[in-house]
Amino acid sequence: MTAVPGRRSSTFTRLLRHGFTDPSAAERLLELDDLASVRSDPVLFEALGATADPDLALRGLVRLVEAEEEGERQVLLDTLITAKPLRDRLLGVLGASEALGDHLARHPRDWQALVTYEASDLHPGVAEFERGLADAVDADSLRVAYRRCLLTLAARDVCGTTGIAQTAAELADLATATLRAALAIARTAAPEDAAQCRLAVIAMGKCGGQELNYVSDVDVIFVAEARDGVEEHKALQAATRVAAHMMRLCSETTAEGTIWEVDANLRPEGRNGPLVRTLSSHLAYYQRWAKTWEFQALLKARAVAGDPELGADYVDAVSPLVWQAADRENFVPDVQQMRRRVVDNIPADRIDRELKLGPGGLRDVEFAVQLLQLVHGRSDASLRSGTTLEALRALADGGYVGRADAAQLDEAYRFLRSMEHRIQLYRLRRTHLVPEGEADLRRLGRSLGMRTDPVAELNKAWRRHASVVRRLHEKIFYRPLLDAVAQLAPGESRLSAKAAAIRLEALGYADPAAALRHLEALSSGVSRKAAIQRTLLPVLLGWFADSADPDAGLLGFRKVSDALGKTPWYLRLLRDEGAAAENLARVLSAGRLAPDLLMRAPEAVAILGDPEGLTPRTREHLEQEVLAAVGRADGAESAVAVVRGVRRRELFRTTAADIIGSYGTEDSPAEQDLGALVDRVGSAVTDLNAATIAGALRAAVRERWGDTLPTRFAVIGMGRFGGHELSYGSDADVLFVHRPREGVSDEEAGKAANAVVGEMRRLLQLPTADPPLLIDADLRPEGRTGPMVRTLKSYDAYYRRWSLVWESQALLRAEHMAGDAELGAEFIELVDPLRYPAEGLGEDAVREIRRLKARMESERMPRGADPTLHAKLGRGGLSDVEWTVQLLQMQHGWAEPGLRTTRTREALAAACAAGLIPAEDAEMLDEAWVLATRVRNAVMLVRGRPGDTFPSDPRELAAVGRYLGYEPGHVGDMLDDYRRITRRARAVVEERFYGAVS
Fold first, then answer.
1. Which whole-number Å values give the CA distances from 273 to 221, 466, 827, in the listed order?
2. Are 510 and 955 in contact (CB under 8 A)?
3. Nearest to 878 by CA among 763, 772, 726
4. Nearest partner of 510 among 559, 554, 550, judged by Cα
5. What is the mean pLDDT of residues 325-337?
6. What is the pLDDT of residue 348?
7. Backbone conformation region of residue 19, classed left if phi is above 0, alpha if psi is from -120 to 50, else beta
8. Phi (first) and psi of residue 870, to 5 degrees
9. Which of 698, 571, 686, 575 is nearest to 629 (CA)?
């Protein structure tokens, strides 16, 4: 076969044509003497070309031939050429599995297991596999026998003799036989232990469901009972030794490799619990302590080895508990938590290659099916299959899942499982990652029948099926709910009203009947609006169910739809802007405040579809809009009505951005920098209120004096307003300062200033549907008994003669907010020496501040409030942190310019940078302050009214938890974390605020 130099041989060309990627290497292999009789046989070339990887198949064949005894080599080759079934099976396996090629090279006679082609050989069961493993007496012989059985199973798979469901069932049967063989070996090795106990092995997971992979952990649970006359604790010890030996026989790596890991971690208490329990002990645990996911796992429980009567008793005993799980108290939050995808532990560079846990992966299908089984299987025994595809078919037959959706999911699941099988078969390694290499992808694509452009075809098919799963795994929960209230064609199966209510209740809806009425109103009819909403609702319902109050979300959507449903832009927004629909669902179901704001002006929903719509507007932009609106208005009241409308719209923008940033969306994770989130809210609400006050001031002046007030007038922000730290329900603390214009008497100027203040407050408190803005001037000199407005000279005289230390402390937050900017700057210049006294505070002043703080703690805490959970006045709360920071500002602000700020977090960071407080202490204070602020914001968002403590209503408390990032069912963790964080902050306060003067 010597080729002319510079020319490719005919063999080289034939190899290329038959799919070899390295024809030169293949040609060299064919030149070996051992292949002389077949090297030119077209039958061999055709058969190799039909494999997933012709190069790999040829290398495996050469290794097998060389491993055979010389007298048997020609027998193998002759049989290979003359017997098509053997040829297809052997070369098919060699071209798909390097690991099984290695096995044949070590045990060359095992190729003969592929020769027989009887009817029973086509569909073996547990009995056939048990016969194949019968001669195994130790770990090595068990592995060799297992691989021999696996060889025949894989051959049927790659040749297409069995489909994916049958292959998975056979793998489970082989695992069952292997567990029985391993148990027999373990019992033989310890006959005394075996004689003391009855031991049953219960398969769980994919093995229990008879849908096993080539390489997967085999999940098991052990149950044992003492034999007559044996003490229970001794029987359990004996059973534990036998069970542990059985696990090692399968899991440990020997000279013949390993089989698979036997995993008993699904047992009660997991790896912390005893390996073996009695049946009564299992039942006691499940009845008292088990979580919803454990009943979900028991769905697949199947007795596979050991004492058959005990195994059957176990399955019979736990089965009723599985189907009662949906009635358990914590079922809804458990389901909400389980439904939420857990991909945090998947490295970012792997998530797009994850077949099992990635978006649109196998876990999505399996979980959706299992959850529907738990919900509806309690009343419909036909749904109680442990096999995913059988259960999906039963769900479709019963109308619990749409037939078209079930068919698409079935097809996608089969394809993804086939990919998973072929990936694992190559090296018999446990993996769910799609390979990246071109050669691996080519082999994988060809193994699935893709021959024209295997890599491109594979990627296209994979993405298509994953997309189907991603789209349908949520939809199958909700589409049947729409069908339950729709008119279906005769003969179509549908979810009954009772089953629909059960499903809604399981998904967190407290009033399923009302929810069904809303669904009917939203989806009935032939209008374009109804058609679009029928398409959107399955997805929206999933987002609502992901919240703490699904009922409120659905009701809110109906209200918005009723208000805007005939508006073309609204329907287009929801249909075309994917983010808008999810953002709307999050906002409507997160609490009362944002939906209330939206309902007063539903057209604000357009904000949710604009990429920049959630970005807060600057104060300059807001003031420009507000003052322009006041200038166009006819009268002060109509002007302020427009101003308050702007405030309502911007409050909605801020609340929506806060909710979406806290919850996250499918395309955008939740905000990780919680301090930045709090700062954005505080700044946005502050700017909005400042612009609103500026608008009210302009309206009040124009109504009576035209463009010019007889006195220059400024509004100074105090408290959280001046600190840019307003929460949604905060009043605006202010001081009013004025200076008579030239030629205007003090009396006239004073009357004008007081009149404009009174008119501003009246206008801002006019009864309307918009949230009021309350102006609080109680921090003024002499408090409520002092004049509402003072001149700058009056402030100067008061502060020089009468000012108390608490007033100087309050002035730390003073900042000009509206009105005459020059006058405002003069006021700030006036108070700077008071709030940042030269050389800091004296000991008497520090003692007075501490005394005031201690008095406030004892007198102002509401009666009955838990001081460990009060966000404002409680231990380690806002007051603790702010007074500590303010003391540092008054002591050191004269020397440290960074401390001269009205903002708590900025001042704390500056104190840390200046070495006035250790970084660790500063971090504790900052964490507590941010958390307490977020709690107050959450309470307002959820309840629609301000509050400083966690709500007592369970649903409201859960909603606060969701806003703070806690999964359903974890409000206890939230409260524990709050107490822990604020307790640490209080310890810093005790040292830094109440400690030595420094």
1. 11, 38, 70
2. yes
3. 726
4. 550
5. 73
6. 66
7. left
8. -90, 115
9. 698
410/893 Cα distance (integer angstroms): 69
DSSP state of 615: S
- Give helix 578-588 / helix 593-600 axis angle, nearest 10°: 120
Q: Which residues lie across from 949 on neighbouring strands? A: 870
Hey, what are 134's tokens?
């019968």
In sequence order, what are the residues at sequence separation of 6 or more whose Cβ sits closer than 8 angstroms to the Cβ of residue 144? Answer: 107, 136, 256
Q: Where residue 81 falls among pLDDT bands split at 50, 70, 90?
A: very high
Contact 893, 833 (CB under 8 A): no
Residue 103 CB neighbours (<10 A) = 22
Nearest C-alpha neighbor of 510 from the set 551, 555, 569: 551
The CA-atom distances, in angstroms, between 921 and each of 753, 891, 979 are 46, 18, 17
538: number of Cβ within 10 Å:
21
The SS3 assignment for 692 reads helix
Closest by CA to 873, choosing from 797, 801, 936, 919, is 936
Q: Return the number of other C-beta atoms located less than 10 Å from residue 786's C-beta.
A: 14
- The CA distance from 28 to 758, in Å, is 101
What is the distance of C-alpha 456 from the center of its chain? 31
Q: Decide if 371 contacts 448 (C-beta within 8 A).
A: no
Indicate the average pLDDT of the chain: 91
Residue indicated by tokens 């004492």: 307
pLDDT of 339 higher than 70: no
Helix then strand then coil, in percent of the chain rounded to 5, is: 65, 5, 30
Q: Say which residue the tokens 């890599």 belong to.
A: 455
Residue 342: its pLDDT value, please?
47
> In this predicted model, what pLDDT tens digit does every residue of 451-471 receive, in sequence order?
989 999 999 999 999 989 988
Structure tokens given for 609: 């579809």
pLDDT at 258 over 60: yes
Q: What number of other Cβ atoms are within 10 A of residue 510's Cβ?
A: 14
Residues in contact with 131: Cβ distance below 8 Å, sequence separation at least 6, in sequence order: none
Question: Which of 51-55, 86-90, 168-172, 519-523 shows the lowest per-residue confidence on average (mean pLDDT)?
Answer: 519-523
- Please tell me the predicted confidence (pLDDT) of residue 52: 97
Counting residues of the chain whose pLDDT is more than 90, the rounded percentage is 72
Query: How far apart, in Å, are the Cα atoms of 140 and each of 133, 151, 375?
Result: 12, 17, 45
H/E stretch holding 775: strand 775-776
Find the distance separating the first CA and the last CA of the chain, reported in whole Å. 96
Where are the alpha helices (H) located in 377-453, listed in sequence order? 388-397, 403-427, 438-447
Our separate counts of H helices and E strands in the chain read 44, 10
> What single string gives the DSSP state of each residue in 323-386?
HTGGGSTTHHHHHHHHHS---TTS-TTTGGGBSSSSTTSHHHHHHHHHHHHHHHTTT-GGG--S
Chain centre distance of CA 439: 35
Which residues have C-beta within 8 Å of that of residue 920, sequence separation ≥ 6? none
Residues near 347 by beta carbon (within 8 Å), at least 6 away in sequence: none
Would you say residue 341 has pLDDT above 60? Answer: no
Please tell me the total number of residues recorded for the chain in this structure. 998
Which residues 6+ apart lie within 8 Å of 233 measured at CB?
none
DSSP at 741: P
CA atoms within 13 A on the CB side of 247: 21
The per-residue b/e assignment along 679-715, b for 16 or more CB within 10 angstroms, e otherwise, is bbbbbbbbbbbbbbbbbbbbbbbbbeeeeebbbbbbb
- pLDDT tens digits for range 646-701: 999 999 999 999 999 998 887 778 888 999 999 999 999 999 999 999 999 999 99
Q: For tokens 């509050």, what's the residue? A: 947
